[in-house]
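Table S2 (text version). Query chain:
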Amino acid sequence: MVRRAHLCLYSRRKMGKKLYKKGGVIILTYYWPPSGGSGVQRWIYFSKYLKELGWEPFVITVDEKKASYPVLDTSLEKIVKNIKVIKTSTNEPLKLFSFLTTGSFREGIPQGEVKNGGLFNKLSNYLRANYFIPDARLGWVEYAYRECKKIIIKNNIKHVITSGPPHSSHLVGLKIKKDFKINWTVDFRDPWVNIFYNKQFIFTEKSINKQKRLEKEVLNNADLVLTTIGGDLKKQLQLKAPNQNFAVVPNGYDSVLINKIKGKKSKKYFHIVYTGLLTRNHPYLSLLKNLKQNFSSINLKLSLAGNISHEIINEIKNFLPNFKVKDCGYLNHEDTVRLIKSADLLVNFFFIGGEKEMISGKIMEYLATEIPILSIGDPKSEAGKILSKASQAKMFLKDSDKEIEHFLKKVIRNRGELINSFPNLDNWSRKKITKKLSNLLSEL
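Corresponding structure-token output:
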């Protein structure tokens, strides 16, 4: 018995050495469980699978008691229960802004839009644009930097990854790069200076020049820059850092979760599902008008889940009085997948003005269900090109009324019979994509 116990201990030690043979990597990301949203999922899955591939991730994030998280999803915590996580304090104004504007510490945290109605919003947006550069989470930088230094020294770390937005996280990487001989990878989940909603801010010339200078400094000092999408975003960044090493590492889907969860189809209704963030900057009215004009006689149910304001929910309900509109609220990831898999049709909308530089984190999850997809955005965008490879998915311009109507009629007429197949879908699993990331880090 004693000998066997020693053997087991010896085996674990050998496995432990083998497990982390690629060394430690610091992942600096503001969004982390219990925060919800697609931005969180990108790095929880990368952390999980990097560990399986022989890396030892150290995640530096913000203490959720101090963080400005618009939505929460505690179910994601179990995915990263074995990851080392260091949580820091922060000083930032967004929770207070949210409380003053909505009476809630979360509901008023801006996501994907800038509200300029009223003197208070205009003043707040001016201060945000010109005194919190690059963004309102700037107060996290010093706290994260101190923890990053400690972990590098204590664990002899050679790799640091910073993920934005918030792009202030890259300022931590910039400081670390100047202090240590280290491989620094910058992850652009979304654009920085060129993000579409920056046009709605009132920047002084001095402020916009500072934004551009910081972005260029980050791009040129990093050892590797990742984007979730190629196309226009990558081209824009390459112009700012022509000698930089760029790589496209997209978001994927959780193959284990997709295969495990079953969706219950409605017998009474043709079921349309939308999940995710929905704002005035999304072209959802194109779909609503089409449904109202052409499908009022259909027994139809529209389910909406995600970070969606009460104003938009009420607007949709009032616009479609003949349909059953269900507000599911914000659902955890598993319940979101369960809702998606109950649909007869999945719909998606891309930010107006950001179609070519951004991509929804849920696109591959939608495709993995093999349910038909109707998306409104730019068909020539990277997302449009991805959807065009699927057998029953289509991206439409927002004013393509006849084409949208034709697609809806086809899906309704052939309900339950259309399989939305996508070539080499397995290559888009989170695990496969993390292997690509692992190889990129090893090459550094």
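Notes on Table S2: Residues 1-19 have pLDDT under 50 and may be disordered. Residues 355 and 416 are 30 Å apart (CA to CA).
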